[in-house]
Design brief:
Blueprint lengths: L49 E5 L2 E7 L8 E6 L2 E8 L18 E8 L10 E4 L4 E7 L14
Antiparallel strand pairs: 1-2, 2-7, 3-4, 4-5, 6-7
């Protein structure tokens, strides 16, 4: 298996990665109006992404159910691709009626550091009717080094 060009560059994952073998199962707990919302240090959620290589592109794919295209913003800065947006609750349900609330509603942001400098003019993105965002980032073109010798 060849090493991934992304190995060790996802600072957003933090030091403790999700491990399904040791993660506790979700439990249904009746929430009351006094129960605090799940703690978020910055008040901004994070989305899940898949990143893979195909042909001459790095592809970032994110399922964004409940998000409209007009609520999305994609920013490129050097090697960092940032996806920002907002997921709005379609209907107001009183907090005390929830038994379990795992879906994040509100503003979200996800920054991904890629292994090459990104040319914003060459990045392509699609957002299909199933609310799947797909961003195509061309891989860095390798520059050939040609040695010039004297007296040739």
């Amino acid at each position: 298996m060849t090493p991934s060009p992304f190995h060790g560059i996802f600072s957003s994952l933090g030091s403790s990665e999700w491990d399904q073998r040791t993660a506790p199962a979700a439990t249904a707990v009746k929430l009351s109006a006094e129960d605090p919302a799940p703690a978020r240090s910055s008040g901004v959620g994070q989305i899940a992404v898949d990143i893979y290589e195909q042909d001459s592109y790095y592809i970032v794919r994110a399922p964004l159910a409940g998000v409209k295209l007009s609520d999305l913003d994609i920013e490129v800065d050097d090697k960092v691709l940032t996806i920002r947006g907002k997921r709005t609750v379609p209907d107001a349900i009183p907090r005390d009626q929830y038994y379990l609330q795992e879906c994040f509603w509100g503003e979200f942001s996800r920054s991904i550091t890629l292994p090459c400098v990104i040319d914003p003019k060459r990045v392509k993105a699609t957002f299909n009717r199933d609310s799947i965002l797909k961003i195509l980032v061309p891989k860095e073109e390798k520059v050939k080094v040609i040695r010039i010798s004297e007296g040739g």
